[in-house]
Structure formats: structure tokens, C-alpha cells
Design brief:
globular; 13 helices; 64% helix; 2-methylcitrate dehydratase PrpD; mainly alpha; binds iron/sulfur cluster; single chain
Length: 296
């Protein structure tokens, strides 16, 4: 079916006039746009879910450091910590934080990369969907519905702004991933279409202005740990909307604010590594070491 869903308002109108969930509208749109069946759309999504699971599984067992030697052992440290003392917030929190780190660490090892929406923010959506699915005994069909829901959020945001730290800072990478994850989580937990959009809105609204200032120009510091933080951020948004807490600023206006914030951000804080964490005393020292390592 042909749908125009360039805004959250239009998406909700389509859902309401067809009496359908967000994922149903989106899978029909995708099938129409790419001239394939809904079953084929869902098969493609399942392939992506399986790739996410592979990244998590191999990330949970690998201890290989990245080429820079800066990152690659955080998943293992967290796993060891949880063996000795469980997470304060329980099993779901343990899984979400370790899965997020496992996925992004696989990315920096150049192994399985599941850009979602970008490589630097790849751990957030997989962690939330797969951890929740495991903890709540959620079926594969529901995982597919959740990933389509997450993708719909990314699709609408990307119609307004490129999802890249170089364009709008990390709000456009990890921030968007967190919004996508909140939407997926609300879908998995049986929330309404309005709650799904509200979850994405709350997650994004509360991360506006996040800078992109990677040390040494590598997607490692602060990116790796940021994936764990923003996966948990998505769950905070999920809990709030399931309690019927609403964003007072409508979703499409939050996206406008994000676009404006990105435009107002200094280029020094948009993936140039010329400001923020990248130019701290330690950030510069790390960069210097990396430069001499490259020359050897
Ligand atoms: S800090 Fe920059 S490079 Fe790292 S994940 Fe965020 S947007 Fe990507």
C-alpha cells in the first residue's frame, strides 16, 4: 500500500485510519515501495535480527582489542562484575548493558557490523530488542515487529536530517538509536501507537545536543560506553510512557528542535575531533600515541 509517512503526525493518522499498528503500516509501505511481498520484507528484517544476535554472541565471548588497543575488553569486565555481584536493576539491565557493549565491540574489531542506524550506535537497538525478547519470552515474530517499529522511527527522523555525527552530533547517532530502541521496547511490551511514538520522543528529547567528539577520530572513545548508557536511557523512556507520562512537546517538533540544535552546534563538536573529549589533555595524548603507532 502506498503511504506517505514523512512525519509522526502522518504516521499516526495512517495507523488510525487503517486501524493498524505502526509495524503493519511500515511493512506494507516497504513492500509497496520495493515491489516485494510483506513476507519478503519480514524475511529481510529477520535476517537483520539474526545478524544482531550473531554480533552479540561473538561479542560476548571475544576479548580481542581494537587495532588502537584502546577498546575491546569492556564487555568482559562487565560480565566478570555481574558474576561476582548482580546488577542493581536485575537481569534485564545486565543483558542490555552487556549486549550493547558486545555489539559495539564487535564493530570496532571490524567483525559483524550491524549499523542501526549507524555503526557507532550499533549496540543500542540490538541490546534492547534481544535482551527484552530473552527476558520476556518474546517470539521471533514479535522481534520482527519491534525492529520494524524501530526502523520506522529512524525512517521518519532521516527524512529531516542525516543520521551522522558530522551533521548533527551524537544526538543524530546514539540519540536516534535510543529513540528507535524505546519505540521497539514499547511495541514489545504491548504499548499503543501513541505510546510508541511518545517513547521515541522522550528518549530523543532528553538527549538533544549530545556532542560527537571522538578521541583520535576513532569510533571508540566515547562511543563504546555511550552505547550501554543510551540503551538504558531507552528503557527509562519506555517505563515513563507505560506509566502514561507524555512529552509536552509533540514528536515532530522535537525532531525540528534536534535539527536546529544540530545546526547550532559548533563544527568542533561534530565528528571533527577538534573539541570536547578529543581535545582534553588525555584525548590529545592518546591521539599522539595513535599517530606514532600509525607511522610504525
Ligand atoms: S560520538 Fe560521534 S562517532 Fe561516536 S557514536 Fe557518537 S556520533 Fe558516532
Amino acid at each position: 500500500m502506498e503511504y506517505s509517512i514523512s512525519t509522526f503526525e502522518k504516521l499516526l493518522q495512517a495507523c488510525s485510519s487503517e486501524n493498524k499498528k505502526i509495524y503493519e503500516i511500515m511493512q506494507e509501505k516497504e513492500a509497496y515501495d520495493f515491489e516485494i511481498s510483506v513476507e519478503e520484507v519480514r524475511a529481510k528484517i529477520l535476517k537483520n535480527i539474526n545478524a544482531m544476535k550473531e554480533a552479540i554472541v561473538s561479542g560476548l565471548t571475544s576479548k580481542e582489542m581494537s587495532f588502537s588497543g584502546l577498546c575491546g575488553d569492556d564487555t568482559n569486565k562487565l560480565k566478570e562484575k555481574y558474576k561476582k555481584s548482580p546488577a542493581l536493576f536485575g537481569n534485564l539491565f545486565e543483558k542490555i548493558t552487556t549486549f550493547a557493549l558486545a555489539t559495539i565491540e564487535e564493530n570496532l574489531r571490524m567483525n559483524k557490523i550491524v549499523a542501526c542506524p549507524t555503526a557507532g550506535s550499533c549496540g543500542i537497538v540490538p541490546a534492547v530488542i534481544i535482551a527484552l525478547a530473552q527476558e520476556k519470552d518474546i517470539t521471533e515474530e514479535d522481534e520482527i515487529n519491534a525492529l520494524i517499529t524501530a526502523g520506522t522511527i529512524g525512517y521518519i527522523i532521516s527524512s529531516k536530517i542525516a543520521m551522522a555525527g558530522a551533521v548533527a552530533g551524537c544526538q543524530a547517532e546514539c540519540g536516534v538509536a535510543s529513540a528507535m530502541s524505546a519505540a521497539a521496547a514499547v511495541q514489545l511490551l504491548g504499548g499503543s501507537n501513541e505510546q510508541i511514538i511518545n517513547g521515541a520522543t522522550l528518549a530523543l528529547k532528553n538527549i538533544l545536543g549530545l556532542t560527537c567528539d571522538p578521541v583520535g577520530g576513532l569510533v571508540e572513545i566515547p562511543c563504546v560506553k555511550r552505547n550501554a548508557f543510551l540503551a538504558v536511557h531507552a528503557i527509562t523512556a519506555t517505563e515513563l510512557v507505560l506509566a502514561n507520562v507524555e512529552s509536552k512537546i509533540p514528536p515532530d517538533e522535537v525532531i525540528d528542535a534536534m535539527v536546529q540544535t544540530g545546526q547550532l552546534m559548533s563544527p568542533l563538536l561534530k565528528e571533527t575531533s577538534m573539541g570536547g573529549l578529543a581535545t582534553t589533555k588525555t584525548g590529545k595524548a592518546i591521539n599522539k600515541c595513535l599517530e606514532s603507532k600509525k607511522q610504525k
